[in-house]
Amino acid sequence: MVDAGLITSEQSSRIRDHYSPSLANRPNTSLIAFSILGSVLLAAGIILILAHNWSEIPRALRTALAFLPLIASQAIGFWVLRSRMHSVAWTEGISVFGFISVGAAIALISQIYHIKGGLESYLLTWMLLAIPLVYVYRSTASTCLYGVGITAWAIAERVAGGTAAGFWILALLAAPSLYLAARRLTRGPVKGVVSLIAAISLVCGGTLATGSITVGMWVLVMIGLLLCLFSVGVVADPDGPWRSPFSRLGTLGLAVTYAVLSYRGVWHAMSYAVNTEAGLSTHIGTGVVAIACVSTVALAIVRRPAIAGPMALGLPITLVCFGLGHGGVAAGLVFSVYVFALGVHYLVQGMRAVSGRMLNFGFLLVAGAVILRFFDSDWSFTVRGIAFVALGGGFLTANVFLARRKKARS
Amino acid sequence: MKNTARWILFGVAIAAQLAVPVSMIVGSEDILASGVRYHFRTRPVDPEDAFRGKYVALGFEETSCAVDTMLRFKTHQKAYALIARDDSGFAQVTGLTPRRPAHGDYVKVVVTSFRRGWVDFRYPFEKYFLEEENAPRAEGLYREHNLGGNQDTYVVVRVKNGAAVIEDLVIGGLPVREALRQDAAKTGAE
């Protein structure tokens, strides 16, 4: 700019001085990423070495060695707390190293004493011992590891025959950390990854923790949770729907779920038959999900009725279809029509609002509804070919039309 | 978070992270030192599931038990298997109860299936960990010795207050490490 004569060299240096302090304070993303990666590799390497060369080492020494990574992580953690808390690279790195070391210490001791235990009890102990690290070091990476860990625990707990209702308590333990991370992080890939992990953990863990009051009720709970995410994105994002990871994951999850529900086969495992093994905690969890779902969806419908309303309609439709019976033929048909209609609706909305994102989402739904029916029908190749040509032609025409409208507007 | 609160949380975290593995060690060492020793007869396991990396998967003869027809059990439920020694000195399950017994030796087990008057269950000791290079060889020896209907392959377990810790795996009448050494010597000589 100085060379072009737009500003003087004095102005240039003053601008540089104005911005340089904030640039210097900005954490170096690549350094943080490498410190996390380095911690993971270091911890994994030490653990692999300890776990391998054990054949001739006495049990007492093996036991002492099992503590080595944990004690090292605590000692380095002490030093970081005293003199390196201002460095995100150090806090994130030591937090991840400590997180892995805790899990490794329990696993190695279990191995030395041949303690079988269940995966669910191992993961629960590990997560409860590791959660303080998230707050001690204000670590985003450890929050993500914790999210993955509690989701894995919910899966293992259900496989072992438990209710996984404790997922809600485990998730609440991480809620303040997520809130702080959301305030701390600006827009960018890190915030996107954290949001995505939180959203996936909430949907998977929440569904496993609550969806067992009736046979197949997990589908209703999953739709409810996905609608929550979708609605939060619709309400909270000022730039419109499908901008935030919550909204994107919610939309994608709902589209896939509705498409799968258009197959009659899946309805065999769904009914209002009560599962007697569901406990009080399951009922409470399901009640909380229902309240959260209804309130967020209602808010989204009030703010943006044309976008939120049709998507939310899937929940009452599923509730009705649970009682339809007839081997799922009627339910499958209802969802085929619903997905098609939903697609047409978003296609029209996309045209009106001149939004390529919405138009193409609508088109994908229409195409999905039509293509999925090809797989379980006896239509000839000629009919299928004509349908594909029509879909492709429509897709191109709609986008060309939209591009012209955008150009005319600008 | 304020600095003092952070230091307190750090102290609590360190204490808990050390206390849990230490309690696992102390508990296991106590059982190994003062628990009652039982020999559990093994049986072959499904070869597809047997070797899973770094351990020998163990199968046992005594994994089901007749119970009072009035009792009801659920799958995955915790229960207590009462154990005693049979005429040949091996562990034998004499009963199963949903409540912790007041006396006698017992092991905490997990119910895998229930039919009226009959319960199948799983022991808490189904893995014997070994180094990666030894586990497949031990697995082969274990299977070989279990197939012939031999009585010389069993697991030595220490039992105390419902908890159990494996002391050794005996294959062909020898502790597993000795069995591996002899097998290696035999293979080398051939």
Describe what this molecule looks like in 3D:
- The complex is a heterodimer of chains A (410) and B (190).
- Chain A is mainly α and 410 residues long.
- Helices cover 78% and strands 0% of the residues of chain A.
- In chain A, α5 (88-112) runs parallel beside α7 (140-159) and α14 (314-322) runs antiparallel to α15 (329-353).
- Chain B has helices spanning 3-34, 47-50, 135-147, 176-189, and strands spanning 36-43, 55-57, 59-60, 64-66, 78-85, 91-97, 105-115, 118-122, 127-129, 154-160, 163-171, 174-175.
- The interface between A and B is medium-sized, with 35 and 32 residues.
SSE-based structural type of chain A? mainly alpha
Subunit arrangement of the protein: heterodimer
Characterize the biggest β-sheet of chain B.
5 strands, antiparallel
Let me know the largest β-sheet of chain A: none
Radius of gyration of chain B: 20 Å
Which spans of chain B have pLDDT < 50 for at least 5 consecutive residues?
47-52
**H/E series of chain B:** HEHEEEEEEEEHEEEH
Low-confidence stretches of chain A: none
Mean pLDDT of chain A: 82
Annotation, overall tally of beta strands of chain A:
0
Structural class of chain B: alpha+beta
Task: Name some characteristics of this structure.
heterodimer, A: 410 residues, mainly alpha, 17 helices, 78% helix, B: 190 residues, alpha+beta, 2 domains, 5-stranded antiparallel beta sheet, 33% helix
Task: Explain the layout of strands and helices.
The complex is a heterodimer of chains A (410) and B (190).
Chain A lengths: L8 H17 L3 H24 L6 H8 L1 H16 L4 H25 L6 H18 L3 H20 L7 H18 L4 H22 L7 H19 L8 H17 L18 H24 L1 H8 L1 H9 L6 H25 L2 H20 L5 H29 L1
Chain B lengths: L2 H32 L1 E8 L3 H4 L4 E3 L1 E2 L3 E3 L11 E8 L5 E7 L7 E11 L2 E5 L4 E3 L5 H13 L6 E7 L2 E9 L2 E2 H14 L1
Antiparallel strand pairs in B: 1-3, 1-10, 2-9, 4-8, 5-6, 5-7, 7-8, 10-11, 11-12
